[in-house]
Each structure stands twice: as C-alpha cells, then as structure tokens.
Amino acid sequence: MKAEDVLRTIREKQIEMIDVHIIDMPGIWQHVTIPVSEVDEETFSHGIPFDGSSIRGFRGIEESDMLMVPDPDTAVIDPFAPVPTLSLVADVYDPKHVAYQRDPRRVAQNAEAYLKASGIADTSFWGPELEFFIFDSVRYINQGHHAAYMVDSGEGFWNSFQEGSLGHTIRTKEGYFPVPPLDSTAALRTAMVKALQSVGIRVEMHHHEVATAGQGEIDLRFNTLTKQADTVMMYKYVVRNVAQQHGKTVTFMPKPIFGDNGNGMHVHQSLWKDGKPLFYAEEPDAYAHMSPLALSYIAGVLKHARALLAFTNPSTNSYRRLVPGYEAPVNIVFSHGNRSAAIRIPVNNNAKASRIEFRTPDATSNPYLAFAALLMAGLDGIRKGLDPVKEGFGPMDKNIYALSAAELATIQSVPG
Prior knowledge:
Elements: H1 3-12, E1 17-23, E2 29-35, H2 43-46, E3 48-51, E4 65-70, E5 76-77, E6 85-93, H3 104-118, E7 123-135, E8 137-143, E9 146-152, H4 186-198, E10 203-208, E11 215-220, E12 223-224, H5 225-245, E13 249-251, E14 265-273, E15 276-277, H6 292-303, H7 305-312, H8 318-321, E16 334-336, E17 343-345, E18 356-358, H9 367-383, H10 405-408
Parallel strand pairs: 1-6, 16-17
Antiparallel strand pairs: 1-2, 3-4, 4-6, 5-6, 7-11, 7-12, 7-13, 7-14, 8-9, 10-11, 14-15, 14-18, 17-18
Helix pairs in contact: 3-5, 3-9, 4-5, 5-9, 6-9, 7-9
C-alpha cells in the first residue's frame, strides 16, 4: 500500500481516527491517535512530531524532538477501537528527516538490508511460537514493607477444592492438550484467532500448552523479518485485548507460576535466495537434511548464544524459566527433533519446510532486536565457515535432562 491507498481506505471505510504506533527499546508499543481531518499525504512524508526523551532507550531531553513516519503497508482497521480507527506502524526519524538508527524497527530493516548486501541470501523467514497464560486475576504489590503477588485461573490445579468447583482442573505439566472442559480457554483462543484474522494475520493453529492455569499458544504463519516483528506486536495487542473483553488477562511473562512450565517464544528461521531455500541438502547422509550453510548458521547462533540472550531473553524473569526440568532449553547444542536442545531441526520431508528452531527465546524480547540479532549471529557463522560439531555443539540426540553429570559437564549452558 501507498499513502494514497491509505487515504482512499479512510474515505471508503469512513475511518474517524488513525492510531500510529512506534516500538520502544524494551519492546513495548507506544501510540498516538490523530483525527482523520488532520491526515493527508504529507503525514506519510513529513511525519508526526513526538517527544523522544519520553520513550525508553531513545534520546535525552536536550535532543528530544523526533518524528514518527507511518508505513502505509502496515495499515489495518483496529478491531477494538470505539470508533472506526486505522492502525499504522511508524518508523522514527530525527527532525532533519534522517532515519533514527536506534529505532528497533530500523535495526530490523538494516539487518534485512545487510543480508541482501552479503550475497549469502536475499530473504530470511521467521516463524515465532508465542506462549502465554490466560489468567482470571492478577494481584501484586511491592513496597518497602510489603511484597506479594497472586495469579489465578479457574483451571489451576489449586482450585480443585474451591466451593463451586466442577473438578475440571489441570495438574502441572498435564495441559498438552486435552479437550474441553479441561481446556477451558479453547473458545477464547478461537475468538483471538478470529480477531487476528480480521487484521490480516495468518494463523496455523491454536492449542492449550503444557502448564496448568490457562497456558495457550497460537501459531503464526512464517513471514519476512521486519514484517514478522510487526506481526508479533499486533499479535500481542490483539490477544491481550480479546482477553480483556472477556474479563481475562494475558501475560507473556516467561515464568509466572513456580513449579510448572513457562512461556517461551520458539523462533523458526530459514534463509532463501532467488526463491530457493538454502537450508536443505538432498544428500541422504546429510544430518537432518541440513546443508553446510545451514550448519554454519546453526554454529553461529550457538557460538553467540550467551550474548544473544541479552536480546532474546532480556528480563530477569527470563532466567526463572531457563532452568532444567521444564522443557526450557538451557543447553547450547543442536539436534534433530530433540526438544531439549537449544536448536531443534524440525522433521521435514521437503526443501521448502527446511528450517531451524531456536527454542531459548521468550516473548519479553523486542522482536525487532531479537530477530535481527539471531540473523546476524547466523550470518557470522556462515561467513566464518563454522562447524557446529567441531565447535562442540552436538548433535545431541539424547534426552539431555537424563544425561549423567559427567556428560552434562561437556555441554555449555545458557547464563543463569
């Protein structure tokens, strides 16, 4: 879409407001709402002024004037606004209209441009799997003399003796994936899927996840890097707002419940060039049908894994999840189909489905920075011709959680 297409949509759909979003450094959407009477083609060229010193990670108060320039290609009608509203994602510029290089969306765009300039590939595809909990209530306090928190869900196993309970609760680690009424959030997830589809987001499936207390997952169709990061932000917005409409609350917090599985964001990724996948090898003796280029990409990600986690697992709570015994991959190895490895190579029977899955990230990450960092790490492995076997990263085709202490001592682990 171009600016004139957006303006035509505004007229045809009788839009009253446009809502323009930017992403701050920690990965939270910020927005400003403008009446359509103030919107014209110059809005998409000159931008909208805002105070950059009030956006975390941007600028100091002495250089706070900045511009947000809406990207017409991101236009969708907001399904939650009280009046007809068009939602747009914007890029950030300084007052001289120079692209702001610390805008996380610009970082993602720069990573895609670097990929093309490298000659290695021209496209990267990304398929994140975001897990979340649907809670009935959330309470917390943190004061100098008092600290406490409590989250609750009717299907939590601890509610089995509550008055009025019908007994349909899920024990820890037994939430994957029963039918209703044990899966009490199935209809709500369907409502989320329909809302996601209404804003043009392709969904492959939804299901209950392993943990008790309403843990779920809605899987996205793969897309290119910046577009998929845009989609992740809209996904979070939609899922949270649908939950709010139903009197529930959604959290992507990695470890909200002690003693049960947490929320990850497994990231599937692949490289293509001239419309052809680069991660697949026809040779029957190739490990998991991975090409040498794919193996070098894997080695790059694992070589930089401990540093990558600053971007892919940036919260202190991220490391409550990254502990042994709860399906969170803490060991820096790769494997074919093994979900206890940091990188899993999904079973596939054709070149187009050939990809890797980095299982360590979580959704507290800023997707623009996380995807860009992963891409750059993988490309570094390709440029250096790294071999994951020679680097000591596997393959590890055993259940890592069942290894002896001596075997575990040979495997690098993520930071604590």
